[in-house]
């Protein structure tokens, strides 16, 4: 992420930061929320369910969804008042805290509770062991990204020294990784869905393990907003969180086919059977949080992952960067 750029924004935009979100909540029945998601991904299915099933509308909210295509871009949009709420990894708020932000960006609702990537091999492997990656190459993500930090954390946990025992290919853009692997680059590929299922259908790759299984629970993808916006708009944040909880309940009880049917409009290029496969794999991997509460154990686990990756200069204080009050109330709403 371009954290130097964000750092400059933090240092030069103090007056702007102080002024954002200071007005009263709109009196209109429908309140507009500008929501910026980090990427478009089936991983975020409960969010699309909340929109498509009308759960936001039931709360009197009109959600304007945009895709930023980058965690740094989401945070810049939040800090510059181009978005009200962001959907991105909680580690971004720690990075902003490390940059000395004059105002915290606060995590208020969790969407995913585990890493959503799968290690894809070129052949089917019935009993995969991480030692099989020694001397091999893995198409991975850039340094400092949560997928890469989790991958290296899981490798160490399983007796592999990443980048010493193997090669991690990090010079391929996210959009081109699947095509690169399919054409022969790398022995393994750390893939999000639907890439893993598409490769499997094509017979060009086979998911062998969920990285979220070994990484444990952590606030992988969360909804966040500036502290000033939350304090000025508590009713709006509560309604937003209520809708997310209802969507989480729905997804938890739905079949993979039902999930695929609802989110299909967001993935027009993905075949329906692939969406069903992805929903099934994600449900089995327990990646979707069942409630929006970000607990402290998950927060500390994220710190451990970041620390091992050498990306944690200053721990992010849980009591300053996490607000569970809205999620706790939403969990009680039937």
Automatic annotation (TrEMBL):
Q: According to its UniProt record, where is this protein located?
A: Periplasm
Highest rank taxon of the organism: Bacteria
Residue ranges of the SsuA/THI5-like domain? 45-253
Q: Which InterPro entries match?
A: SsuA/THI5
**Keywords tagged on the record:** Signal
**Similarity comment:** Belongs to the bacterial solute-binding protein SsuA/TauA family.
PANTHER family xref list: ALIPHATIC SULFONATES-BINDING PROTEIN-RELATED, TAURINE-BINDING PERIPLASMIC PROTEIN
Q: From the Swiss-Prot or TrEMBL record, give the protein name.
A: ABC transporter substrate-binding protein
This chain's source organism reads Effusibacillus consociatus
């Amino acid at each position: 992420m371009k954290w130097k750029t964000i750092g400059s924004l933090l240092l030069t935009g103090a007056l702007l930061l102080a002024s954002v979100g200071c007005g009263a909540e709109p009196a209109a029945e429908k309140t507009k929320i500008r929501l910026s998601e980090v990427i478009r991904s089936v991983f975020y299915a409960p969010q699309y369910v909340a929109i498509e099933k009308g759960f936001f509308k039931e709360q009197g909210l009109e959600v304007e969804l945009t895709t930023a295509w980058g965690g740094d871009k989401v945070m810049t949009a939040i800090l510059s008042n181009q978005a009200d709420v962001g959907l991105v990894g909680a580690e971004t708020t720690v990075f902003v805290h490390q940059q000395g932000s004059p105002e915290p960006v606060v995590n208020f609702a969790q969407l995913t509770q585990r890493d959503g990537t799968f290690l894809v091999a070129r052949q089917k492997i019935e009993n995969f062991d991480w030692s099989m990656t020694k001397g091999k190459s893995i198409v991975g993500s850039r340094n400092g990204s949560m997928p890469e930090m989790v991958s290296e954390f899981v490798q160490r946990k399983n007796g592999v020294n990443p980048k010493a025992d193997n090669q991690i290919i990090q010079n391929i853009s996210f959009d081109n990784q699947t095509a690169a692997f399919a054409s022969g680059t790398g022995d393994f590929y750390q893939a999000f869905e639907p890439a893993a299922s598409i490769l499997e259908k094509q017979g060009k790759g086979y998911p062998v393990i969920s990285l979220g299984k070994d990484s444990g629970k952590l606030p992988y993808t969360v909804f966040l907003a500036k502290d000033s916006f939350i304090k000025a708009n508590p009713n709006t944040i509560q309604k937003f969180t209520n809708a997310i909880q209802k969507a989480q309940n729905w997804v938890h009880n739905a079949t993979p086919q039902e999930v695929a049917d609802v989110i299909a409009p967001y993935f027009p290029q993905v075949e329906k059977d692939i969406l069903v496969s992805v929903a099934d794999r994600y449900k089995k991997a327990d990646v979707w949080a069942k409630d929006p509460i970000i607990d402290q154990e998950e927060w500390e686990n994220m710190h451990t992952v970041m620390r091992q990756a050498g990306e944690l200069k200053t721990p992010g204080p849980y009591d300053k960067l996490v607000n569970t009050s809205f999620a706790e109330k939403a969990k009680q709403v039937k």
